[in-house]
Design a protein that fits this description.
Helix content: 40-55%
CATH class of the largest domain: Alpha Beta
Number of helices: 16
Largest sheet: 6 strands, mixed
CATH superfamily of the largest domain: P-loop containing nucleotide triphosphate hydrolases
Structural class: alpha/beta
Shape: globular
Distance between the termini: 36 Å
Radius of gyration: 24 Å
Mean pLDDT: 95
């Protein structure tokens, strides 16, 4: 291996996609068991590597040189082999700093709460200090400041940085902390990048608090690491273009709207245009249950169907790079919206009710009166849960073009 990432478990890493987009080298993912990691560093059979959990501290005794900032933080995520001597650096610092500045968060004179006490927490502490934070509080499970007393003692914080793995796939339903009660909070940063938006980030957004996930940090630290790999500098355009590229590969395009609004037709057209797989959650429910939707309703009722729908939505939302057409009532459950937004951008296809034809295959809108009732019940929910609205007049190509424009 010349270049790559070393860690214990790398099944969901984005690093290969990132490096091979902007750099002219192959980048390998190398999973190494704990009992073999020391042997790996002794052999030094690599040119330059990134290091992730749980080896950012394990590598330090094997280094011939450690960068001052990495030494202060106590963690290394980049190692360069220079004629048999290992040089260690920490580009997580620069990556997190760029993420914070990219989102225009101003830490000067502010109180920052850091969730977690591991290596990334130390990085977040150093970054917060460099950005002029007046007070920095570290929260850990068993520390003096912990998740049981933090709200009582530090509910006046201005920013929260999550450095724990809480909310990371496949445990996307978890969150390190409940944001209710932090009355001065103006920003939330979560270093987790898979899903793109964790439960913590989504809660912040629902409360009107600006929040961001860790994808831009991941991209930035990778490019900064490559600067050490190749002894070169990249301009800001490289950072932004790489981030947009990776986001386009990982983000789902989610289509909501009434039955008959064109979700499947437009979704399939987008799938062809973007070379992204298309999934219809109604079709997935039929596949999972082994019977048609009308039969699900008649045999088991609407509640059973809605629960099956939530499971299907959770199933597809955990993936990335999909075009997802949802059922007409998918927006009725808050949990569905949380799953869809975790890795996706929601587009409401707003087609005039008079242009929609009711069909018997849709149990709750099989006639025009029921269709109008459903439209009235759901319209405001469609609008409030979508990031973008697309007016559909029957012209598929126009709708596709509008969606593509709104993705830029």
């Amino acid at each position: 291996m010349k270049y790559g990432l070393v860690g214990e478990k790398l099944g969901h890493s984005f690093s290969k996609v990132i490096h091979e987009y902007f750099a002219q080298y192959e980048y390998d993912l190398c999973e190494i068991p704990l009992q073999e990691i020391n042997s790996f560093f002794i052999k030094k059979e690599f040119k330059a590597i990134n290091i992730t959990i749980p080896y950012k501290e394990v590598v330090i005794p094997h280094l011939n040189y450690i960068d001052e900032s990495a030494e202060k933080i106590g963690a290394v995520n980049t190692v360069v082999n220079k004629n048999g001597k290992l040089f260690g650096y920490n580009t997580d610092f620069g990556g997190l700093r760029k993420l914070i500045l990219k989102n225009n968060f101003d830490f000067k004179g502010k109180k920052v709460l850091i969730l977690g006490s591991g290596g990334t927490s130390k990085t977040a502490f150093a970054v917060s200090s460099s950005l002029g934070a007046e007070s920095i509080v570290v929260v850990s499970r068993n520390g003096e400041i912990n998740y049981k007393n933090v709200k009582k003692l530090h509910s006046d914080c201005d920013f929260i940085i999550n450095t724990t793995p809480c909310g990371m796939f496949p445990n996307s339903d978890s969150s390190a902390i409940d944001l209710v009660g932090f009355k001065k909070l103006s920003g939330v940063i979560d270093v987790v990048y898979n899903p793109l938006k964790t439960k913590l980030v989504l809660q912040a957004e629902s409360m009107g608090i600006k929040a961001c996930g860790g994808l831009y940090m991941l991209v930035s630290q990778a490019i900064l690491a490559s600067e050490y790999f190749c002894d070169k500098k990249y301009d800001e355009k490289t950072f932004d273009e790489t981030y947009k590229y990776v986001l386009s590969k990982k983000q789902n395009i989610v289509l909501t709207g009434m039955p008959g609004s064109g979700k499947s037709t437009i979704g399939k057209a987008l799938s062809e245009r973007l070379s992204m797989p298309f999934v219809d959650t109604d079709e997935l429910i039929v596949e999972n249950e082994g019977i048609e939707i009308t039969e699900i309703f008649s045999r088991f009722g609407e509640k059973y169907f809605r629960d099956a729908e939530t499971q299907a939505i959770k199933q597809v939302s955990a993936q990335g790079g999909l075009i997802i057409a949802t059922g007409g009532g998918a927006v009725l459950k808050e949990k569905n919206i949380q799953y869809l937004k975790s890795n996706g951008k929601i587009f409401f296809l707003n087609r005039p009710i008079e242009d929609i034809v009711p069909t018997e295959s849709r149990p709750l809108s099989s006639n025009y009166d029921d269709l109008k009732k459903r439209f009235s019940e759901r319209y405001d929910i469609y609008k409030s849960t979508a990031e973008e609205e697309v007016f559909v007049n029957g012209d598929v190509e126009t709708a596709v073009r509008i969606v593509l424009e709104k993705l830029k």
